[in-house]
Each structure stands twice: as structure tokens, then as C-alpha cells.
Write a structure and sequence with these properties.
13 helices, alpha+beta, binds guanosine-5'-diphosphate, 4-stranded antiparallel beta sheet, 38% helix, 377 residues, binds manganese (II) ion
Length: 377
Amino acid sequence: MKLHEYQSKQIFAKYGVPIPKGRVAATADEARTIAAELGGRVVIKSQVLVGGRGKAGGIRLAKDSHEAGEVATQILAMEIKGLPVRKVLVDEAASINKEIYLGITNDRSAHKPVMMASAEGGVEIEEVARKNPEKIIKIHIDPLLGLRDYQARDIAAGIDLPREYWKSFMQVAHGLWQAYVESDATLAEINPLVITGDNRLIALDGKMVLDDNALFRHVDLAELRDLDVEAPAEIEARKYGLTFIKLDGNIGCMVNGAGLAMTTMDIIKLFGGEPANFLDIGGGAGAEKVAAALRIILSDPNVKAILFNVFGGITRCDEVARGILSAMEDVKPDVPMIIRLVGTNAEKGRQLLADANMITAETLADAARKAVAAASA
Ligand code: GDP
Ligand code: MN
């Protein structure tokens, strides 16, 4: 789950990282009021979950509250990389002497978090990473020991940070590390961390990505999810405990188990089809869950056929079949459905479905072939 800049910076601030004064606004009027409270020059920043807002014109300075209102009106009418701007952050403007990059992410191959820093931060950081990767220094952090003082000092030295800023840099680096660990983040990034005209170090931008699998233990952070930016089907799926990802094909997949779901998608492709989604209905394929999953799959107009591939283990196949049949009464799909059931009581389950005139299959290959044929008919 990605957090907005204003949310990330608030978390950073809780861990002692200095951020500019400011607040988020949903209307130009609110932006004007905030700018008036702050007084002086402000920066109006689009809050969308993509990078490169500055280059896209989504970050602009305003000299007073009147101009802040005008700029906010314009930015709130923008779309950046396909995402509509619904909120702007109004921050007091900083004068910038230097832009530094500082970030932490997981280095999977090293099995450790890595802190990265560059003296050449700012909007061109990707360019730096590509052309001058040696200008980005990296230090791995032992997750049990945490970020050590000497490591933070090594980074400060590595980016040639003047001595007078080392003390506040240590505070920023430790704050960022704590925010990263305690939020179960997979990314915590400040770009740019700036040295201001009045010789302070502050985080002008902030970005955090949280590990979805750890959100259950961060009730407060889970509430920060921006439902505006998620596909409605994915929100609906989460409500029923389904794992759903929309794809571009035309064969809807209803499968229990993530591994089986991936296999199903592979086999569909092998026979020349394209899956419309990844869906793991999880354990206990009861009627209510199956009906919810069916509705979600059918809300996609591209879907021309649905392939059920269910392994009855703890949940018996006859139960699954009954679940499917009662869900069908509820949802009434108008596309062909191909069903492969294996596992406990498979015979009984298949019989129930055959009696209801549904297309059943014994092997996955058979099911996939039938689904591809049905979708292209
Ligand atoms: P991004 O483009 O999405 O990464 O958005 P940022 O928040 O990083 O802003 C992009 C750039 O805008 C920064 O690198 C700065 O150069 C500039 N910028 C952002 N805030 C201020 C500010 O308060 N004052 C000034 N002068 N420039 C700013
Ligand atoms: Mn940035």
C-alpha cells in the first residue's frame, strides 16, 4: 500500500524528521486558508500516488494566499499520469541550497534492508541511478541491530555532507529507519532532503510503501488507504477476504489457492487464452464468497467465460458445488462457466453440477481448452 506524500511526511515527523509546516486541502478555498495561516510563500503540491509530479507541473510555488488559491484550482483540475488530483498539500515554501536523496528499501538478494543516499537528489535521481550509479551509496542494515551510528556517519561522509549538518542528518537517518521498521514498510524515501537557505535539513518530499501483509497489525496505518485510487473491484474483493487482481484478458478465473491460481493462468495462456484476473477465493468456498467472487469477475465487461478450478481439500467438493449452484441463483451469469473440481468428494460435486447442466472437466488441460474455446466462440 502506497502512502501519499502528506501521510508519509507526517509519519516521518513522528520519528523526529523535520518537515515543512503545512496541511492538506481538498478545495482551492481550503488551500487559500492554509496559505493565509502559514503566511508568505507556499508550495502547492498535488497528492497523487505517482512519482515525477514536479516535472508534470503538479508542484508549484505561490507568493501569497491569493495566488495559492489560483494555483490550487489549477492543480486540482489536473490529471497526472492518468490519476486525477483530489488533494493538494500546502506547505510553507523552502529556499533550497542543496537536494539530497535518502531512502531505505529491502534488498532481497542481500536479505537485508539497505539505506541509499546521494548528494545529487531531486527530480533527476533516476537519471543519476542510470548514468552514475557510483553517486548513490548503499549501506546494508542488520535488521536485528538496526541502523548504527557509524553507518549513518559513513553515509554523511559518503555524500560529502558538510560537518555542521551531521548531527541533524543522524536524527533524520535514525528517524527514517525507525519509521521504516515500525510501520513495516518496504520503502521509506525522502527526495529531496534539503539544506535550506537558513542552514536547516528538512524533508521536502516523502514516500512510503507499506507491506500489505503486515497491515493487520497497524490498524491506524491501514486507515490511511486511499480508496479513491484503487479499482472498485479490488476494494470489494478485500471486503470478502478474496485476493483479486484485475488483468486484461477475457477468461475469468475463480480458483482456491494462490499457487493453483497461477498454474491456472499459465495453462490458459498455454492454450492460447488470456486470463481476465487473478483470484484466490481462499479456503472455505461457501456460497456467499463464491457469489461475491462471481459478481466481481462479471463486473468486468471483457469477461467471456469463467473457469472454476477448485481443489477440494478441507472444503469438500460437494460443498463447493452447492456453493457454486446457490451463488448462480443469486448472480445469474450470462457467460459460459467451465468447472473443474478435484479432491475430496469430487465425483459427487461434479454430478451435482452436471445435473444443473454446467460444463465440467476432469483435468486442468481439458478445462482450459474448453474455457479458451468458449471465450473465443
Ligand atoms: P516529485 O516531483 O513528485 O518528486 O515532487 P517533490 O516534492 O520532490 O518536488 C519536486 C521538486 O520541486 C523538488 O525536487 C524541488 O526542487 C521542488 N520543490 C518542492 N518543494 C519546494 C519548495 O518548497 N521550494 C522550492 N524552491 N522548490 C520546491
Ligand atoms: Mn520527490
